[in-house]
Amino acid sequence: MPTPPYLVFADVDETLINCKSMFEFMRFQLVAEHGPYGATEYARIRAELQQKADEGVPREEINRAYYSHFAGDPVAGVHELGARWYAERNAAGLYIESTRDALRAHRGQGAEIVLVSGSFDAVLNPVVAEVGARHLLCTRPVVRDGRYTGEVEKPMIGEAKAAAVRELLAARPWIDPADCYGYGDHASDLPMLDCVGHPVAVGADPAMLAYVSRRRAAELDRV
């Protein structure tokens, strides 16, 4: 197999797809399993997590709190619902086309695509297949006897994204991080973008746009 010339690291929610997959999937799951009560339960959980965010609780802890609600759920059943959610949501328009086109162009140049997300594989596997990603760095719920425990190995948020990217790059010493690309939409993606030579901001987040502008200016100063 030819050696890829570089890697492309892409956040998923609101970078590659136009929604927050974790929350849309949770609502889909609860409604599928419990009908109108599920919609009410989702609203309660969403409000609870939003309150934590408003109080300044770290995103990593909110990520853990989200997955705690899957405790006892069968992994196979959640993955089946994840595939159903994806099919329905994709039919309605799921992707940010500019990002999907960019990833397609990178693949055409021989690069490997790496998706990096705080979401989990039950939701992300169809996205991996759609964009031809070679690697998925995501939050991994703990599984015991075929069911989720409600715990996670490590939330794939912020610095954890950067650590996972650095680990993957370290295992490929023939690839220069300066040749690699990173796509993100939120300030929590900045540690990941620090790991690559070509950061790309998706959307209009002021922190992201300012960061990419500074990086480009610094690069021009070195020329």
From TrEMBL:
**What keywords sit in the KW lines?**
Hydrolase, Magnesium, Metal-binding
- Entry-linked SUPFAM superfamilies: HAD-like
**Which GO molecular function entries does the Swiss-Prot or TrEMBL record give?**
hydrolase activity
InterPro entries assigned to the protein according to its UniProt record, in alphabetical order:
HAD-like_SerB (IPR050582), HAD-like_sf (IPR036412), HAD_hydro_SerB1 (IPR006385), HAD_sf (IPR023214)
Q: Which domain of life is it from?
A: Bacteria
CDD domains in the record: HAD_PGPPase (cd02612)
PANTHER family annotated for this entry? PHOSPHATASE RV3661-RELATED, PHOSPHOSERINE PHOSPHATASE
* Similarity comment: Belongs to the HAD-like hydrolase superfamily. SerB family.
- State the NCBIfam families in the record: HAD-SF-IB, HAD-SF-IB-hyp1
Protein name per its UniProtKB record:
HAD family hydrolase
